[in-house]
Model the fold of this input.
Amino acid sequence: MSEKLVSVYEAAGQVEANFIKSLLEAEGIPAEIYQESAGKVMGLWWGDLGRADIVVPEEYEVEALELLAKMGQSGLLPEEDDTPDNQNTTNPDEGGT
Done:
C-alpha cells in the first residue's frame, strides 16, 4: 500500500490484530498491521510493546470505522476494559502481608 495510511484500531496484540485485519479484508477493506518490532519478536500482548495498530488507506477510513463500530455493538470486539493493562487485581487499601 503506497497511499496515506490511517490507524483505525488499536489491538492488544497479534492475535487480535490478525482477527481485525481479516474481518476488514473480508469486507473488501485493505488493512495492514503495525507493531513495535521488539514486542512482535518477544510475543508481547500488553503495554506499548504489545499494542498493534490496524491501518487502512485513508480512503477506506470511514468505511472501516463504521464496520468496527458495528462489530463493537454486536459484541465481536473486546471492550477497552478487557485488556490486561486495565485490569487491577490487587487493592493496596485492603492491606496485606
